[in-house]
Design goal:
This protein is α+β, with helices and mostly antiparallel strands and 467 residues long. A five-stranded mixed beta sheet has the order 1-6-5-2-3, with no helix packed on it. It has a four-stranded antiparallel beta sheet with strand order 7-8-4-9, sandwiched between helices. A hairpin with a 2-residue loop joins β7 and β8. α2 crosses α4 and α14 packs antiparallel against α15. The protein is globular.
Length: 467
């Protein structure tokens, strides 16, 4: 023991490495999981666990985990070894799950940097536990979808962030322009597990399933070789975690609906809409009391604000008003984050070749525009492209390095030799040179496009035409 952490050797968490059998075919699955008959522990009507362990459901879960791939958990087993392991240990896994003896492995903790310089802690389950969690989630999702609010949009089939933003716009256009921008402090780390189990037990009558979920919540984490217990929280990174978070926060949705409030929730990001600032202040006080006293969650007082909708950032978007009502824009923080990423992708220090850089830029810009396509951003994209092309010209000028190379390339691109010689010997910095008329005449916009670079405005216009 060491400060509440227990040192655990790798061997205690490691599954046996087994090679794929010689007769393995890529399309093979493990429909055999319940081939020896009824998986019920009692006679009569099948229970929920029986549906979870059905061959069809387990096969679907296996395929999903295999498709998602991802890194291994504490046992270091990757998805390539998943099928042979399941084939070898199928009987003992089924029996342990049916009889309630199955013990999930601890999750492997990894830290993901956040924008504010802090880190988000993720828990990576083993691939075997991911299959089981996925199988549970597949059966619980349709059950709980019937209970979830129409104003909850995160981690749900057929729902997305765009629908949440459009609902915010609708609320604002109908006169609900003041919002409680609710921030739950370290939500995934502070979920009260007993409360969550109580909520689950209202719907799930098969105690074996509730017990299995509880075991996953209490499985613990391995961090830097030490085992830590998890008496509270839902580990981010597991296949069940998004669904469990929605089940917990559905209690908040129900309370808001019962009180007649308009709201939009995406995972643990929630906006409550009111007609006046005063009303929003009253809602904040009353709903904070409910969250902390009934759900045992913590409201972050510093980040939770009452504001006009123009002053909030929600899912990277912002809002503004004109004669046509509420419009959608990209929040300034999102623009700065995008520019920081472009700087990273156009840096010479990453050691990338031009082809790899162009492909990375294409993927990022296309994905970014697709996500923010709801925003009115034509002017912003035009200005961004001017800045982006200057970055590319600066990058190209750096790549030419030697004066002879600069001279030769400028002449090749149509600059008269005297002017090319003068410019090749300039003492100006790269960024200043990139804005010069000489580089704009030689490294033209069209030449950048022909060389394979994609630009924000072109991508935006294509998406707007499609939509």
């Amino acid at each position: 023991m060491n400060g509440g952490k227990q040192k655990t050797g790798q061997d205690t968490c490691q599954r046996k490495d087994r090679a794929e059998p010689e007769g393995y075919i890529g399309g093979q699955t493990f429909l055999w999981m319940a081939e020896k008959g009824n998986t019920n522990t009692t006679e009569g009507t099948p229970k929920l666990l029986d549906y979870i362990l059905s061959p069809t459901n387990l096969n679907k879960a296996y395929k999903q985990v295999k498709r998602n791939d991802g890194s291994g958990g504490v046992d270091k087993m990757g998805t390539k070894l998943l099928l042979p392991y399941l084939q070898t240990h199928r009987e003992e896994l089924l029996i342990a799950l049916q009889e309630g003896h199955y013990k999930p492995q601890p999750v492997r903790r990894v830290e993901i940097p956040k924008e504010n310089g802090r880190h988000r802690q993720l828990g990576i389950p083993t691939v075997v536990d991911r299959v089981i969690q996925q199988a549970v989630a597949q059966q619980l999702t349709p059950i709980y979808e019937r209970q979830f609010s129409q104003f909850s949009y995160g981690f749900r089939p057929g729902r997305n962030a765009h629908q949440a933003i459009l609902q915010c716009q609708k609320n604002a256009n109908e006169g609900f322009r003041y919002v409680v921008d609710m921030d739950l402090e370290k939500f995934f780390d502070t979920v009260n597990q007993n409360k969550l189990i109580e909520v689950l037990s209202r719907t799930i009558y098969d105690g074996r399933v509730v017990s299995l979920i509880h075991k996953y919540l209490r499985a613990g984490v391995m961090a830097n070789g030490y085992y830590e217990e998890t008496p509270m929280g839902v580990p981010q990174g597991g296949n069940l975690s998004p669904l469990l978070s929605n089940i917990m926060l559905n209690e908040l949705d129900n309370e808001l609906a019962k009180r007649g409030h308009r709201f939009v929730r995406y995972a643990d990001d929630c906006m409550i809409f009111c007609r006046s600032r005063r009303a929003a202040g009253r809602v904040l006080a009353s709903i904070t009391k409910f969250i902390e006293e009934e759900l045992y969650l913590r409201v972050n007082r510093e980040k939770t604000v009452v504001s006009h909708i123009k002053g909030v950032k929600f899912l990277g978007y912002g809002f503004y008003f004109n004669k046509n009502g509420c419009g959608i824009r990209i929040h300034g923080n999102s623009v700065e984050k995008m520019k920081a990423k472009i700087r990273e992708l156009t840096s010479r220090s990453n050691g990338w070749g031009n082809d790899r850089r162009k492909e990375a830029l294409r993927q990022y810009i296309t994905g970014w525009i697709n996500y923010f396509r709801l925003a009115d951003m034509k002017g912003l994209m035009e200005k961004t492209d001017e800045w982006f092309r200057r970055r590319l010209r600066s990058l190209t000028w750096k790549q030419w390095k030697r004066t002879k190379t600069k001279l030769r390339n400028l002449i090749k691109l149509g600059i008269p030799k005297p002017k090319a010689w003068e410019f090749a010997n300039t003492r100006k910095g790269y960024w200043s040179t990139a804005k010069s008329p000489i580089l704009q005449r030689s490294i033209t916009n069209d030449r950048l496009k022909i060389s394979g670079y994609i630009f924000f405005t072109d991508c935006y216009n294509r998406i707007r035409c499609v939509n």
